[in-house]
Write a structure and sequence with these properties.
The complex is a heterodimer of chains A (223) and B (493). Chain A starts with a helix and ends with a strand. Chain A has one domain (48-222): NagB/RpiA/CoA transferase-like (Rossmann fold, 3-Layer(aba) Sandwich). In chain A, strand 5 (135-137) and strand 6 form a beta hairpin. In chain A, helix 4 crosses helix 6 (101-107). Chain A is of the alpha/beta class. Helices cover 32% and strands 23% of the residues of chain A. Chain B is an alpha/beta fold. Chain B folds into 2 domains: 35-420, Rossmann fold (3-Layer(aba) Sandwich); 422-492, no CATH class. Chain B has a 6-stranded parallel sheet, sandwiched between helices. A 4-stranded mixed sheet of chain B has the order 8-5-6-9. In chain B, 49% of the residues lie in helices and 10% in strands. In chain B, helix 3 (45-65) packs across helix 13 and helix 4 crosses helix 13. Chain B has helices spanning 19-27, 34-42, 45-65, 72-88, 90-103, 114-127, 139-143, 146-152, 162-169, 186-197, 205-222, 248-254, 272-287, 322-327, 342-346, 350-353, 364-375, 392-396, 403-416, 422-436, 438-456, 486-492, and strands at 107-111, 132-135, 156-159, 225-228, 232-234, 239-244, 258-264, 268-269, 294-298, 312-318, 461-462, 478-479. Classes of the chains: A alpha/beta (223), B alpha/beta (493). Chains A and B meet through helix 1, helix 2, helix 8, strand 9 and strand 10 of A and helix 3, helix 4, helix 5, strand 1 and helix 9 of B.
Chain lengths: 223, 493
């Protein structure tokens, strides 16, 4: 298999090289155009990022609310009760632990399980998920989740309700800043940027939410 | 244009009435009849209403959000430069991409043709014993007719984007790069659902989407092969970037044990930072959203301890004619295209005839341009004429492909390569001759003036033109020429 793909790659890259009129590989790496900050950047300052994020997230039809660290667990419990959810999935997250979310959910009678306590298949039977996020982008009002062993890709995708906890300090100004961070920290094998509830306008332009991902995204911004 | 591969697995009988049969049949018609199909579509009021409504909406949305950008024109220039740079150093970036994908633990395959791509993907599926496929939307997979081939081989393959799912159950074809069922209205879709699922007719969009969600959720849960396309490939890190609104592409990269991404070789960008530039333009241009709902950046198999994501990851890089376009310095620029569909929405011709009239996967202005380049100018010689050259497509293009200029160049190529019909060639030659000779020009002007003024009968308007010109006066009058020509007036001064 490996050798086969070798010869195939040889031929396509060869064709490309010939098409470009080159006889061999470039001797040095080419220099791509400079990313012009004034043209590309939309958010220039670090001031008021959580507020900007909240306003953009609201435009994206998520429901952002600013809360204190002490009250977030109670707010999550109250919200999920109002949704009639019973089975709640969570990543194994030090943030959620520190904020007492898991304990509060269990204390309130929810069947709350962390990612290490379930299989991927079982997740399909959960009503809601509560996750932390790696970053939030103020420019676009987006949540960014870098997944891994502790935080499965499916948690913020499969259940119909997603509650996201954003720590105010994790807001970055612009997409450019996110890419810079990812460049430094590494992308890993999956990063998801979420900018609203799952939606479609395929049926004659009618907006429908909750197609394959969550239909509702509740966001608590912890000061 | 007909690919023998379509008929390759002949050992399996083609089900009569199946989409595959229709494809095989159509593949045998080498020449595409643009005139016929477009005239037919332009007369279909229901189609025209649906297409017009949706394209105008997306176009207006785009216009509304572009001013969010501090310098939209400057950003389009930059995006165009980045893509042009990537394309002009494609050999370098493909090598870099391959090295990095392999470093991340993925497998890289290069497919020179559609046939080769199909074979590679089917081999991967076979070796891993995969039979249940969830496929997210991808134009490259439309190019190689992957879903049909898989269906044909008895695999359980399902298109999971709602629009593409409707295309699949309707044995239809997508008619827009971004909005595949732009040609169908809600009543159409409701009828199709009722027929497919055997449920009562219901034309509430939310109920229809919920019905699809329920049906597809079960497919997601049990799939063993996930397929995606790719909007961008990041050479410096070896990652694939996919944008979507529904969450079905996320499903493809999450649940199945094997993941295959099929992407055109021209989708490479050098750096992660380039994604910021491209993402700021892509969704704005396509649907007028600042960002799509989901943007996934992924690559490589799951790592130790991870409970989701693929165990095996394959990137299939598709050439299928791209390197030939690359070889033309003139048309190389068309490989910048990021498939946003903005030119379709902006095009007054597309809005009247819809996507199917263009006869191939890519429609609208960009389709009129790249389809002849991909599939042979001789087979699609009418497509470069499917434009009024108004320039709206160029103005909308996020990577500034000068579509009108290239369409004119294709028209030139048609003449140079003697692809046009004999009568066309005669008319153009006569026209060229008369424009080059002042005497013949003067005589032909005088004759035209005489005939037209006589037809106007002193009213100042010509209400009926003869023979081929008759179409022009079907819906409007033509002003009669002035008594004196400009030349005559100029001489008198």
């Amino acid at each position: 298999m490996q050798t086969k793909s070798e010869t195939q790659s040889g031929s396509v890259i060869e064709r490309v090289r010939r098409a470009l009129g080159r006889s061999g590989p470039l001797s040095a790496a080419p220099t791509p155009p400079k990313i012009l900050e004034p043209v590309t950047r939309l958010v220039h300052s670090d001031i008021g990022l959580p507020e900007l994020f909240a306003s953009r997230a609201a435009t994206n039809k998520m429901h952002p609310e600013a809360v204190g660290a002490g009250e977030v667990a109670a707010r999550v419990v109250a919200f999920l009760k109002s949704k009639g959810a019973t089975r709640i999935a969570l990543p194994n997250s030090p943030v959620l632990e520190r904020l007492g979310v898991l304990a509060a959910l269990r204390g309130a009678g929810f069947e709350a399980r962390t990612w290490d306590q379930m299989t991927l298949d079982e997740l399909y039977d959960y009503d809601a998920s509560v996750t932390d996020v790696s970053w939030a982008i103020a420019e676009t009002g987006s949540l960014v989740i870098k997944s891994g062993a502790m935080h499965g890709r499916a948690i913020s995708l499969v259940p119909i309700v997603h509650v996201a906890i954003v720590e105010a300090g994790n807001c970055v100004p612009d997409l450019l800043d996110l890419m810079e961070i990812l460049g430094k920290e590494g992308v890993g094998n999956n990063v998801t940027i979420i900018s609203g509830p799952s939606k479609t306008a395929d049926i004659e332009g009618a907006l429908v939410t909750g197609v394959h991902g969550p239909g509702e995204v509740q966001v608590y911004i912890v000061q | 244009m007909s690919e023998p591969s379509l008929r390759a697995p002949v050992a399996i009988p083609v089900k009569s009435g199946s989409a595959t049969e229709q494809f095989v049949e159509e593949a045998q018609h080498a020449l595409f009849d643009f005139q016929g199909v477009s005239s037919q579509n332009a007369a279909n009021a229901r189609l025209k209403r649906a297409v017009n409504k949706a394209t105008l909406h997306q176009y207006t949305q785009r216009q509304a959000v572009m001013p969010d950008l501090p310098d939209a024109d400057g950003l389009r220039t930059l995006a165009g430069e980045i893509k042009q740079h990537a394309v002009e150093n494609l050999d370098y970036y493909l090598e870099q991409l391959r090295t990095n994908v392999e470093r991340n633990g993925g497998h890289v395959h290069f497919a020179a043709t559609a046939e080769e791509a199909r074979r590679i993907i089917l081999d991967i599926a076979k070796r891993a014993n995969c039979t249940r496929v969830i496929k997210s939307k991808s134009m490259a997979s439309e190019e190689i007719e992957l879903a049909h081939t898989m269906e044909h081989l008895g695999m359980d393959v399902v298109e999971t984007d709602l629009g593409e799912f409707i295309v699949q159950i309707g044995k239809d074809k997508p008619s827009h790069i971004v909005a595949p069922i732009i040609h169908l209205d809600t009543a159409h879709i409701a009828e199709m659902f009722s027929k497919h699922f055997g449920t009562p007719y219901n034309d509430d969009p939310k109920s229809l989407a919920d019905q699809a969600r329920l049906h597809l959720r079960d497919k997601f849960r049990r799939a063993d092969l996930g397929m995606t396309g790719g909007n961008f490939l990041v050479a410096e890190t070896g990652h694939i970037c996919v944008v979507e609104n529904e969450g079905n592409a996320r499903q493809s990269v999450t649940t199945p044990k094997v993941l295959v991404s099929l992407v055109g070789i021209e989708k490479v960008v050098p750096r992660l930072a380039d994604l910021a530039v491209m993402l700021k333009l892509l969704a704005r241009s396509a649907t007028g959203q600042p960002m799509t709902i989901y943007t996934s950046i992924f690559g490589g198999p799951r790592k130790e301890g991870e409970k989701d994501g693929p165990e095996e990851f394959h990137l299939v890089l598709l050439d299928n004619g791209r390197s030939e376009i690359l070889a033309s310095e003139e048309y190389r620029e068309t490989l910048r295209c990021i498939r946003c569909g903005a030119c379709l929405n902006a095009c007054p011709v597309y809005r009247k005839i819809g996507g199917h009239a263009y006869g191939y996967v890519y429609s609208g202005p960009i389709g009129a341009l790249i389809t002849p380049l991909f599939k042979g100018l001789g087979n699609y010689k009418d497509l470069p004429q499917a434009s009024s050259l108004c320039g709206a497509c160029y103005e909308a293009c996020p990577v500034k492909i000068n579509i009108p200029k290239h369409l004119i160049n294709l028209r030139r190529d048609i003449v140079k390569q003697h692809i046009g019909t004999r009568s066309e060639r005669f008319v153009y030659r006569a026209w060229a001759k008369s424009l080059k000779s002042p005497l013949i020009y003067k005589i032909s002007c005088m004759m035209q003036k005489f005939v037209l003024r006589r037809r106007a009968r002193g009213t100042g308007w010509v209400s009926k033109l003869p023979s081929v010109a008759g179409g022009w006066t079907q819906v409007r009058d033509m002003p009669a020429p002035a008594r004196k020509t400009f030349h005559q007036m100029w001489k008198k001064r």
